[in-house]
Amino acid sequence: MKYQSPRGTQDILPKDSQKWQKIIDVFRKHLEYYSFQFMEIPIFENTELFQRSVGESSDIVNKEMYTFLDRSERSLTLRPEATAGIIRAYIENGLSREPKPVKLWTHGPMFRYERPQAGRYRQFHQIDVEVLGENSVSCEVESIFMLYHIFIELGIDFRIEINSLGDLDSRKRYKEYFQKYTKGFLDDLCNDCKTRYEQNPLRMLDCKVKADQEIYAGAKKPYEFLSDPSLKRWEEIKTLFGLYKTKEQREIQNIVTNPNLVRGLDYYNDFVFEIISNDEILKGQSTICAGGRYDDLVEHLGGPQTPGYGFAAGLERLVLVTKGAISRKISLTLLSNQSEVFILESDLHKESYEKGFKLNIELNYNPANISKQIESALKKNMDYVLFYLDDERQNQKITIKNLRTKTETKCSLNPKDIIDSIIKNHENIKA
Question: Which end of the chain lies in a sparser environment, N or C, as judged by fewer CB atoms within 10 Å?
């Protein structure tokens, strides 16, 4: 039998993992700068957690969750997103007693049963970021500025779309209006929208069916029903983003308002956003990061009343559109038939680490065939071969062969001298 990966999954091979890791490292650097703390959560949770948090009317709960019974007949679900799990951990572990705001992030696999296509898998990976206990617009503004600089560093061509859904009162008034507006069109709408009409009319605006979109185009927008507090908040956010200035005067020039933006999860209120890649490689799956405010979710899941805000970025899509240069580590093969080479290898690691020099070493102890080992190093795209054989041991030297220039140099066995020699002979490498 020929085994293959399940449909909608993929293997992250070594040739792709460097860009994958770079994206995580860039996010980590910026998140740590903004005082976010990393945490891990389980890959599966009790099914009810997602039903209550994501919402019974969402496509995730209705169509996409991987749910199963364990041996004790408990219903468990592979996590379709990370926010619910982080909030469950926040409540269960007493993080609500920590000084506010509590700023958390994680990354890892999520699971949704969807039709696979470019940048969309059934097992996919997200970087998830949450801020709990902060009600000011600093969450919204800080996160967008941070994400702007992250995606610039990754060399991504993108735009930022923002909107306000309003608070509970705002959404209630819009729901009443929108149900009246669409009532006469119900027979013409898709089956999903007919269901959303009763459960969550706001999500009808998120429909991708062209005929339905044409019907909704004539309706008023959610921002026209904002309560006074929500309107004040929305105006403050737009002012801080410079949306009342000319485009050239804004610090973030590629940010726009989108009155149809509602997001696909039920728990959002007020500010929501999506960051859209302009790269055609993603076709219809162009959203690379999205999120918003959810001020009632913690309380809804049994915790104290806690304002919340968060977002997630999809790693698979980011890998496809990241254009930034990948910093390449120096790689070398160390060939030796001398037992003390293990001490030398350890000393080289310590010296390179202390200097902040990124070095990958592959040790071949007692190689049977030197020429084949050099050939293997070339196939692996190694930068250097270091020889420590009988002659080198006798002369207390090491031979460094640059596989790019084919030149050889002799160096003392002092690890500092070896590292310095490699740095000197390798162009454009920072020690």
Answer: N
Q: What is the DSSP string of 159-199?
A: EEEEEE---HHHHHHHHHHHHHHHGGGGGGS-HHHHHHHHH
Structural domain including 39 reads: 14-167+227-321
- Report the C-alpha gap between 10 and 13 in whole angstroms: 9
Distance CA 324, CA 268 (A): 32
Which of helix, strand or coil describes residue 274? strand
Instruction: Confirm whether 382 is domain-assigned.
Output: yes
Sheet containing strand 75-78, edge to edge, reads 44-46, 75-78, 66-69
Taking the C-alpha atoms of residue 163 and residue 259, their distance in angstroms, rounded to an integer, is: 6
**Under DSSP, is residue 331 helix (H, G, I), strand (E, B) or coil?**
strand
For residues 292 and 311, the answer to whether their CB atoms sit within 8 Å is yes
Query: Which residue among 263, 298, 321 closes a domain?
Result: 321
Q: 217: which residues sit within 8 A by CB, 6+ positions away? A: none
Distance CA 289, CA 213 (A): 23
Is residue 262 over pLDDT 60? Answer: yes
Q: How far apart are the first and last CA of the chain?
A: 50
pLDDT of residue 116: 81
User: What is the C-alpha to C-alpha distance for residues 78 and 43, in angstroms, rounded to an integer?
Assistant: 6
Q: Are residues 311 and 358 in the same domain?
A: no
End-of-domain residue from the set 278, 303, 321? 321
**Structural domain count of the chain:** 2
**CB 104 within 8 Å of CB 91:** no
CB atoms within 10 A of CB 130: 25
Stretch 327-343: mean pLDDT: 86
Residue whose pair of structure tokens reads 């977002």 in the numeric block: 311
Beta strands in 74-231 (DSSP E): 75-78, 102-111, 123-132, 158-164
- Residue 317 and residue 334 in one domain: no
Q: How confident is the model at residue 324 (pLDDT cuts 50, 70, 90)?
A: low
- Give the list of residues 6+ apart from residue 15 with CB closer than 8 angstroms, or none: none
Residue 45 has pLDDT above 60, yes or no: yes
Q: What is the pTM of this model?
A: 0.83
Q: How far is CA 41 from CA 53, 120, 268, in A?
A: 16, 22, 22
